[in-house]
User: Fold these one by one.
Assistant:
Number 1:
Amino acid sequence: MPANLTVVALSGGVDSATAAALLVEAGERVVGITMRLYDASGSSASIGGRCCGPRDVEDARRVAAHLDIPFYVADYSEDFRARVMDDFVAEYAAGRTPNPCVRCNQHIKFTPLLQRARALGATSLATGHYARIVDGQLRRARDAKKDQSYFLFNMPRAALPFVRFPLGELDKDQVRAHARRLGLPNCDKPESQEICFVPDGDYASFVNRNLPMAPGEIVDEGGKVLGGHGGIHHFTIGQRRGVGVAAAEPLYVVSVDALTRRVTVGGAASLDRKTIAVTDLNFWPGEARRAQVQIRYRHQARPAWLRPCGDRVEVEFDEPERAPAPGQAAVFYDGDTVLGGGFIAA
């Protein structure tokens, strides 16, 4: 393979297609690779053009043909099943709220795919993520509404010098405009909104098909039984709709106990937490310091103290945060720079 080659991960969507097109327009040598992660044949994903459907592979192939670049399909379905889908099921079974996009970026997109790019002789791997890498540090995208650095905090640190995000300085309207200007065949393709392997959004049914769950009790904060449920995988911290208990005031899921299969509900005030523990850390700075901490996607990062405590970090927010859910990512920022992060512990 020639020098200065860039491998672009083509998902079939407009973002990765535009990233590839901009690199080609700039005169770079580009190869497109689509990852086959999940067979969505026969599901709504295969019809609606969502991630992992057969249509997405064909859309990526059409983009590569339009750009006149080599194109390959790499099958990572076994890795994806083991590292992302099985983890998703296990986390719900443990009473936690999983984040499959973070796990996919950690274990699939920036590990085996990056290794494949290097094996091809590429000097960089580019994706259509909205984020930036500046001076070897992961940073937020210019477009705050599309920023995806939250999902990327767990990518291997060693990958940072090798990875490129061509869309990091653009907003979505600019990306669409470039796609149309460059005549990309998927320029008007809608964005996928659901998790790729749960295209109908019914997470509970997916979990139950893969690991049947036992019923349990719904209790108040004093332990009084208020009703029953069909499995803890139906619940996440902070949930209000679908709790299944009638009350004079709104009830929210306050905690989920996987051992007793008890779901505890309470008032909104019971969701507030000033301190959380964060484990499974990735490139965390290592000493106590101030930072802004984001505990879910599309959520504003809040000022807090970070304090090391063994193999975890204690996060003390300046003001209580609403409904931090065990299993979700907590990402640490200094302005727009990602300091590191981990996953919220119980």
Number 2:
Amino acid sequence: MDETAKQPLRATTDTIALYGPGAPRVYVPRARGNQPATLIMTRWPVLEVVSVQYSRNQIPYAWSTVPSGLAVPAKPVVGLYGSSAPPATGEGGQSIKLAAGFIDWRYGPEGFAILPQYVNGWPHAGLTSAAASGATTLQVDDCTGWVITAPFPGAATGATGTVYDAGGQEVIQVTAASATSGPGTLTLAAPLAFAHAAGVMVSSFPQTIVWAAILFACEQALERGATSMTLPSVPGGRIAQAAGVDTSTGSPAEWAKRIIRGTFDRII
């Protein structure tokens, strides 16, 4: 699935080197004023801007750091933070807005080197230990993206996700995390309704991504020598059709690729 999307789908923290203004990924208005610059990232959606460093594009670089709060996601993800249910489709932006005054045209085209560090993708983890019914915390293998620094005043910071557990699937909303990335503890807004074993998946992936995973799993089962399979009440064709994919041709894997490519066919 990552190969089809050409990026990791689960939330990661990454740093990208950009050069501007004038390059395709760095737009800086030529007119004087307070208009922000736009930095287009390679991975999407942008959940949080951790930091932005900049320097004149002259080796050796002399890096300066943009003060906190002056670089924010251009289009924050809708329906992931502070929502009662995870989003059904991929939403959010691919770019960062950087306050005026840091990157400009004083040194000409590509006169600056820029190093944005940002969180992107969707929070996704597995339980590292069992969780009892009524528990208000989860031990997970990756806290990345579950709690972010809100880009705007009053914005919610805790992500909403689904605990995918047969017979006990439930939606959770996170209010705090013990780590910004890697293993840690997620604190929940409400107690768990069901008990869950270690290894159970907890994810904020949109439904389109989950559907694509089901279709890839069906294809893999057949490739590994199975002659038949038993599926839940929603067959692969109906899953793909629900995502707006033409199922008149191709295999489940092809349908999955069409779903993912349709989700990622955008530059925002």
Number 3:
Amino acid sequence: MGNMLDKAKEIQDWVLEQRRDFHRHPELSFKEYRTSQRIKEELGNMGIEVKSVGETGVVGLIKGKEGGIVLGLRADIDALPVTEDSDVPFASENAGIMHACGHDTHAAMLLGAAKLLSGMKDQFKGTVKLIFQPAEEAGAGAKAMIDAGALKDPAVDVILGMHIFGDLPQGKVVVQEGPLMASGDTWTLEVIGKQCHGSAPWQGVDANVCAVAIVQALQTIVSRVNDARLPIVINVGTIHGGERFNITSGKVTLEGMNRAFSQEVREKIPGWMERVIKGICEAYGCEYTFKYNFLVAVTTNEAGLTKKMRESVASVIGEENIMQVEKLMGSEDFSEYQLITKGGFMFLGGGNEEKGCVYPQHSNHFKIDEDALAVGVACYAQAALDFLK
């Protein structure tokens, strides 16, 4: 069949054209109307069976020979509310919105893999299910796709995904066993005191002072309650309290997001938090409401599937170009598919200091070395062929 990377390089200009088009026209979570329409058009041009899933999700089916499994390949397609400040000639044309996390490359690479695989249907048994997913940045897109039936009809046996990173070197791919990205869960806390004139604080109950004590005490969960060998993050992201400079605050609203690599620890965190919140509120004379949302699970790779992914990637770029990295505290809703079926996730290097591609995800300067796209296309396509053997 020849080297898959060579095949990917043959269509590289077309893949770059798709990527740059997506980059010029970024769309926020669950609003990817133009993006999904373009994806459907390109898949249709390849003769691939296409259907919409939800408002902006897209699924394509490439059917090989009879028999075999159904393999899912997933790419997320949404952008971020970031104002782009890069020097690329194809910068965002949508004010205040930018593909600052590389999802434009994901969509383009999966289209590239579709282009290769649709021409190889006589070389594999089974079905490739192409899943273009909205709203990864909201942590809700994978669940929405699952609820809308993306993993059914036909049922997906194995699903693979990847994420490009601007701080990993171009030409390298991370394939490793075990927890790869943390869970991500959100929470909201209202601390309710009693408003009064700021000159007479004894006539009220100051919610601000109580909230400050809670913020400080929550970090003792990380350092003194949790097993330090199983790291967690408890992040207080926003604090909004008080009405005016000369009024004692009657209410404070706090919002945050927590991370963990252990499901057992993840499930304990809200109980630990509420114990602290309740005790401090009682001490300060405040009431409270506390809401916790288990949003995104841990992204993890099981041993057998990882071994197979590694073999596929090694055949594309060589074993010496497969990296291992420290676990990331960031979250990825690909994990929701892994709760339903077998799934494997990879990281793709997109950084290149010589080209100025050195910025982290979500930066307004974020850039990718586009030579990485051929590698991603080849890894998607080769893994599909190997898993369908």
